[in-house]
Every structure is written in structure tokens, then in C-alpha cells.
Write a structure and sequence with these properties.
The structure is a homodimer of 333-residue chains. Chain A has two domains: 164 residues, 3-Layer(aba) Sandwich (Isopropylmalate Dehydrogenase); 155 residues, 3-Layer(aba) Sandwich (Isopropylmalate Dehydrogenase). In chain A, helix 7 links the parallel strand 7 and strand 8. With 333 residues, the first copy, chain A, is an alpha/beta fold. Chain A is built from twelve helices and eleven strands.
Amino acid sequence: MKKIAIDAMGGDFAPQALVEGANQALQEFSDIELILYGDEAKIKQYLTASERVSIVHTDEKINSDDEPTKAIRQKKNSSMVLAAKAVKAGEADAVLSAGNTGALLAAGFFIVGRIKNIDRPGLLSTLPTVEGQGFDMLDLGANAENTAHHLYQYAKLGSFYAESVRGIKRPRVGLLNNGTESSKGDPLRKETYELLAADSSLNFIGNVEARELMNGVADVVVTDGFTGNAVLKSIEGTALSIMGQLKKSILGGGLKAKLGALLLKDSLKELKSRLDYSDAGGAVLFGLKAPVVKTHGSSDAKTVCSTIRQIRTMLHTDVVGKSVTEFSKEETQ
Amino acid sequence: MKKIAIDAMGGDFAPQALVEGANQALQEFSDIELILYGDEAKIKQYLTASERVSIVHTDEKINSDDEPTKAIRQKKNSSMVLAAKAVKAGEADAVLSAGNTGALLAAGFFIVGRIKNIDRPGLLSTLPTVEGQGFDMLDLGANAENTAHHLYQYAKLGSFYAESVRGIKRPRVGLLNNGTESSKGDPLRKETYELLAADSSLNFIGNVEARELMNGVADVVVTDGFTGNAVLKSIEGTALSIMGQLKKSILGGGLKAKLGALLLKDSLKELKSRLDYSDAGGAVLFGLKAPVVKTHGSSDAKTVCSTIRQIRTMLHTDVVGKSVTEFSKEETQ
């Protein structure tokens, strides 16, 4: 029985979305146990499950605008910190939160702790492609700076994830660069390229450009945290802007446009669901001793349930354990 | 009378699109003269204008897959190199090409030459926002690496451009970063932030995130060439993927969806035209002694004409001359 510690107080719709997501997941999976950290009375308002679930009460919580490292240090009894400590103490196998991302990164780093020989855990998400398979990208912003060796470790971690959690055999690894030729990029990219090309255990397919990401050009895309963050936010911002404009065009387009939209409803819905990658779960801070997963602050119960499913798969396939074994071989850098 | 040198042989639809764009521009503007470089017989097939236009014949051209610097050095009689040389010799005031971007950057850098005290010219484009005003971003990839001082110069250049060419008073300058707080980012961002904040001649509004770019959060956005290239390609790739998926959903959605799309036609067209920023012209390699402008390889006559309009505005407002004056004050770095 795998145990997942849930920060029930983080996110825009806490605790309702978290607790209802927990209800769903407990129905769907008989082999998990959930521990909910937060305000017991409020949690009980929404909790319908009665087996394999427990509540650890606390009044304290971390807010979305708290300074991350300070919050972790000062709010020792917050729902997020208690959830992370449960993993540290061996009382839970993984943490899920929809709260303050920076604080969760800090909690993961300082409380759960890094895998030996991994200097800089990276933030990994599965992002959508037009054909639906998706791709895993990291680092999406856990770090503001990375070395070539970090990126090399991300290629390994991303490959483990794509293979274990998404079932992709010999995942194709691409290095995000400003052109596809092997000579492209700044010194960081050139050095990373050499490291990736030299390791035959990786299925390295060379440089990939941001324009091709949604076309499924690679299964795993590695980049530094600064660029990854900018690319992720560009994709999100563009998708939101276009969908918003489409809606505006329809609403401002008179009766004809509205009738057209009504007839197109199913097609538009299908488009939206293809672009919506919340089914793939949340963002994993990968490189820690246990899964620490952030789901969107705006997550609803369904997304929370998907994220619990993702964590369950990570635990069942022991992707973290495999990483520990692999990186223990590395000489300390 | 301003003279614009046009590489008539570069781009997917050369020379037709270039020559037809020239025809249109000559009709629209009575105060410009165009010099077309390329295959005279082919150019004449499409040339309808007879005044203020001349052809300089050459058989040589640079291909899209030529190695840029080598091509510039070896193909001395190519249409692109001859156009750049005409500017260098004072026979033309600006260059336009739809050909090999890298080669045009090299031609700009080595033939047209940099403005004194500008180390690294940057690639600037006007990109779309949902409200239609757009924003200017640089560097979009002329450089793989930049220093804080380069980014500071881009803020000045971008401000000149937005004010002169787009008529925006005291343009708001944002620094692309991985968060809006002033303490965010890697050392490059932190150092750039200090430089921008210390210069009261700039209307610096602080850090901006990639997610907000299309919402018009700033008029000028500065970043290093690697990140700018990744962000530009992410925006383009996402927009193309979504529009492609929308089309696919409609085509695969049966009669109902097709009828809906027919009724929505005007709204979808309006959406497309809002996202299409070819009206704003091409990408300017800014920081050179004359306007060197790249229009998309796939540009049609209308886009070529828009780019000629853009160059005409740059020449009439003397945005390059203003930059020369401004940067001549700087101590050599």
C-alpha cells in the first residue's frame, strides 16, 4: 500500500478540490492510502471516503504570496511542511500540493532531500503535442541557471520518467537549441551536446527547436531552467491568448457566428481537450528522494485525481528508486 | 528620394513575390526608389512598374541552406551581397531580403557595418498582442550569447524603434524574466535590471514574464538572443499548432462542424488577421549603420510591400541616425 501525503490547503480551490480529488482517487485505486494535511473541520465538509484516508490537522498554511524559503523555515506546522516531513520520516511515499510552487520546491529540496549525486533537481512536466502523445520537458524553472552536467542529468531523469511513467520505449531525447545543426548554440548547449552524444545509453536525437515541440519532435526535451520557464510560459500564454481571442471573435460576431460556434461545439471541445494536458498530472520536482508533485493552483478535483494517478504510477514503477541506483554509480561531481 | 536595395532572389516565392511587392509599394509611395538585384529576365516577367525602379543583374544567389558566413565571403556577386554592398557604397539607404537569415545577418554585420559603440546588433520584430498594438522584442536570435550591456543597448534601440516607427510615446520597456519581482533571474538578468533601472531616459517597467507578452504587458521586451529565439519559436509553433488543430477538428467533424465553420468564417478570419503580424513588416537587424530587414521566407507580395513600408518609415524617421547620435555619446565598452 503506497501512501501519498496531500497538502489539502494549497491552491485556489483548497481544500474542496483537493479533498474531492482524493475521494475520486480512492474510488479509482484500491492500492493507495492518502493522508490529508490541513484544517480538519473544513476537510471533513468534503470528505466522503472513509477507508484508506486519514487527516492530520493543522491551522497553519503557506500562502501563495509567501516568500518560499522563509515560509518553509518559519511555518513549520503548515500543511505543506508537515506533508513533506511525513515523507522525510518514512510515514508517506510522496507529496502532492497545489500551493506556492517556490515553497514546494524549497520543501522538496530542504526537507525531502536530493538523490545522491544530483546537484539540481529539475521541474518536469508532460506537455501536449498535436498528435496527443505529449513530451516531457525539464528544467521548467526550478533553477535560474544550469550547467551542462545538470542538463545531462536531466536527459537521464527525463528518459527514466518517459519510459517508466509514460511507457515509451527508448524515449527520443532532444536538446532545445536555436537551430538543429550540431554546431548551434551557446557554450552551454555545445558542451551539453557533447555529453549527450557520448552516452549511448541515451537515445539522443540531437538539437530540437521550440517551433517543433508541439509536433512531437522528441519524447524528452532538456534545457536550462531559465529557458524552460520562458518556453513553458510562452506556450501557455499563446494558447490562452488564441483561445481567448477565438471566444471573443465568436461573442462579438453576431448571431451567425454564435450559431456557427454552436454547431462547432464538439470540435472546439475536442481541440480544448487535446491542448489540456492536466490528464498527464502535475509538475514533478525530479531528482529528489521521493516524488514531490505540484499540480496547478487552479486545479479542480479531476486534475487532482489525475495527479494522484501520476504519483501512483511513479511509485509503482519505482522511477525514483531507479534514478537513485543509476546516479549512485556516478562519481560525485 | 530614399533608395531601397532589394534582394529579389531570396525566399520561397522569389522573384515573383519580391517584384510584385515592389510594384505595389511603388504605387503606394511616391517618395521611394527601388533597386532590384537578381536575374533580370525573371524579374522583368513580373515587373509592371517603370518609374523609380531599376534592375542590377546577377546570376549568383545565396541558397537557404548555404553556410551563412561562407556564402557571404564566397558568393561576392550574389543578389544579397550586391544589395548590401550598395548600402555600404552609399548607392542605397537600406536592404530588404527574404532569403537566408544567417547570411543576411552576416552581410549586415560585415558589409553594412555596426553603429559605433554597438557591439552586438540584435534582431527586432514587432509581435502581435491580443489588443492589436503589438510589442517589439529583441534580440530574437542574432546572437547566441549576450551580456547585460548588450541588453541595455537593446532597451535603448527598442525604445527608439517603438517611438519612431510605431509612434508610441515613452514606450514601456520590460525585461523578460522568470518572475516579476526585481530579485528574479540569473546573474545576467539581475545585472541588466540594475542597468535599466538606473537609466531614467528609459521607461523601464521592470521584469515581465513570457506568459504576459501577448497581453501587451510592455511595448519593448529585451532579452538575450538565445532566449528570444526560443520564445519567438514557441509562440509561432503554438499558434501554428492550434490553428492547424482547429482546422483538423473542423474537417474531421462532419457536416455539422463544416457548416459551423462556414458560419464562423468571418470571425475566424478576423482572429487570423489579429495573429498575423506581417503587416508590421519584417525583422530588423538593429544596431547597423542602415536598416537591414529580413522578411519571412514565405512572404507574399503583400508582406513584401508591408516590409517596404516599414523600411520607408525607418528611413523617414531616421531611427538609425538617432541611434548613431545616441550611442556616439557612450564610452567605448
